[in-house]
């Protein structure tokens, strides 16, 4: 079988081409592996504040070159955000624990804690929930607070007491209070200065008349039956300091707002997201005070909303150690380097650089010397050719002695060497005759 021997320049081109392709593939794979993952997050609130906060966090993740990025999907509120999440239109969502279908949700962080406030206008005689009998309560935000209305109605039998709950928009709340369209309001807000100021502005600002906060004394019983809620005591003077409103710690309900992730999202991805969010919170808390309420969710196995395993690894300090994270790299690196060395050696051999001549190559070289002998006109060049012949023959004999099966056999060496010596002898005779003829002339 005749083998095709490629010229050296073509072999160099082939090796360089393969190297460029391999390098390009490696760079592409590295870029793809390190490319940030973008997750969609459904977010919404009645005043748009949640969207602003998430936009600021998303921008911060970009500036800090986080491995996970956020793309916000604005919705009309927490209820709409929960619907977008449950329908599969978002990877993440900011939701209230008592709103929407959260069967596929796992907690990543607690964004804030919202407190249910029942407030009567200044001068009202209503002091407790039973005092709402035959009264109208304005539910600020409407549908999103329907679950709170339901648990209050069931616990206090408010339907029998003819209590009417009427949904009102935040912008219409002050007018509804002033026109006595409602006798009290139910609003669920985080206890931050921004939202407390909003509540204060719903009522007349006078020195003597102050709004009345109505306690939900059965908050503990409600929390036991409906795990989305917890009993909470609003500190004295939260709404107003002098005179204090409330005038003592006041029991009510509290519900958590979560950033949730789909169960299908990988643990490593959510671990990276959780770390990035906590770092962004630290950097942004000065300009976004509401981030002070960001905390870790309940990591107990029986928590109302289970924490995502990737987030739990951060909170429980069970993230991978250096050896866990880089063990595969440490193990595989010698194997990869060994494979690379093998590839380079194969390329080096393919190019024929620094390799001893094979029997075919040596034979070709000897035949080429025969052509040079016939054409040379100098005695000195014949001497050089003899030295080249001696070098090739010595190399082939050394290879044969070492057991190299590719070395030329002795018979071929002897025949070739004898033929070349005959050519040299004949060429010297021709050159000597030419020289004698020239001298005689």
Helix content: 40-55%
What portion of residues belong to β-strands? 15-25%
Low-confidence stretches: 319-323, 353-357
Which value, in Å, is the CA radius of gyration? 44 Å
- Subunit arrangement of the protein: single chain
Biggest beta sheet summary: 10 strands, mixed
- The termini sit apart by 56 Å
Shape: rod-shaped
What structural class do helix, strand and pairing data support? Answer: alpha/beta
By DSSP, the count of extended strands is 12
The total of helices stands at 13
Integer average pLDDT: 83
Please trace the helix and strand order, writing H or E for each element: HEHEHEEEHEHEHEHEEEEHHHHHH
Structure characterization notes:
- With 441 residues, the chain is of the alpha/beta class.
- The protein is 47% helix and 18% strand.
- The protein has 13 helices and twelve strands.
- Strands 1, 2, 3, 4, 5, 6, 7, 8, 9 and 12 form a ten-stranded mixed beta sheet that branches. A two-stranded antiparallel sheet has the order 10-11.
- Strand 1, helix 2 and strand 2 form a beta-alpha-beta unit.
- Helix 2 crosses helix 8, helix 11 runs antiparallel to helix 12 and helix 11 runs parallel beside helix 13.
- The longest helix has 31 residues.
- It starts with 7 loop residues before the first helix and ends with a helix.
- The relative contact order is 0.10.
